[in-house]
Amino acid sequence: KQEVTQIPAALSVPEGENLVLNCSFTDSAIYNLQWFRQDPGKGLTSLLLIQSSQREQTSGRLNASLDKSSGRSTLYIAASQPGDSATYLCALMDSSYKLIFGSGTRLLVRP
Amino acid sequence: DGGITQSPKYLFRKEGQNVTLSCEQNLNHDAMYWYRQDPGQGLRLIYYSQIVNDFQKGDIAEGYSVSREKKESFPLTVTSAQKNPTAFYLCASSFPGGGMVEQFFGPGTRLTVL
């Protein structure tokens, strides 16, 4: 059974720092992997989608990588800002086209 | 404005009562999904529908029911059989295309059982 783990569960950094969020999974048979942002009490906003044939995707200050062989994805946030404070969720689409979610990393960027 | 709307934003239910959560989308998506989120956890799939008049159970369908009579709408009913319904419920939609497409999410409904 596919399991998705996100470490750390919470992270607090000073403004301006570059940071990496980690997502690991147990079964490499995936179609894609998405990174989402969730603000408190709100829905999910899609940040980046990496197809299984791709190694990385970039959008502005965000860069997501995917290594299926090692069962890992990372989300790199450059020059973090207080507005980046949120929970970041990774989700992968498994072989039955279902999204399997990690439990998220709560990020706090201190001014 | 294209998007997914969910209503109500907050919903309170008494023990033994059925309630229905609304999800509407104007993105012309064929596929729609319902997820449940508990505090500090990721989302779990309740039901999904790839096309009108068809839907499948997800991982935690017990105590829930859905209908898909229109492409734009996918209401979720939380029945009295659901033993622990207090949670945050999220609706999503996507184009068909299997593993090539991304899902887009609504703002969510927070259900509390009194």
Provide the descriptors you would attach to this structure in a database record.
heterodimer, A: 0% helix, 60% strand, B: 114 residues, mainly beta
Overall 3D form of chain A: globular
Taken from the alpha-carbon principal axes, the silhouette of chain B is globular
Helical content band of chain B: under 10%
Number of strands of chain A: 11
Radius of gyration of chain B: 13 Å
| Portion in helices of chain A | under 10%
Structure explained in plain terms:
Chain A has no helices and 11 strands. Chain A is mainly beta and 111 residues long. In chain A, the strands form 2 sheets. In chain A, strands 2, 4, 5, 9, 10 and 11 form a 6-stranded mixed beta sheet that branches. Chain A is globular, with a radius of gyration of 13 Å. The mean pLDDT of chain A is 94. Chain B has 114 residues and is an all-beta fold. Helix content of chain B is 0%, strand content 49%. Chain B has no helices and 11 strands. In chain B, the strands form 2 sheets. In chain B, strands 2, 4, 5, 6, 9, 10 and 11 form a 7-stranded mixed beta sheet that branches. A 4-stranded antiparallel beta sheet of chain B has the order 1-3-8-7, with no helix packed on it. The mean pLDDT of chain B is 92.
Write the layout of secondary structure elements.
The complex is a heterodimer of chains A (111) and B (114).
Chain A: E1 4-7, E2 10-14, E3 19-25, E4 30-38, E5 44-51, E6 56-59, E7 62-67, E8 72-77, E9 86-94, E10 99-101, E11 105-110
Parallel strand pairs in A: 2-11
Antiparallel strand pairs in A: 1-3, 3-8, 4-5, 4-9, 6-7, 7-8, 9-10, 9-11
Chain B: E1 4-7, E2 10-13, E3 19-25, E4 31-37, E5 43-51, E6 54-57, E7 64-66, E8 76-78, E9 87-94, E10 104-105, E11 109-113
Parallel strand pairs in B: 2-11
Antiparallel strand pairs in B: 1-3, 3-8, 4-5, 4-9, 5-6, 7-8, 9-10, 9-11
Short description:
The complex is a heterodimer of chains A (111) and B (114). With 111 residues, chain A is an all-beta fold.
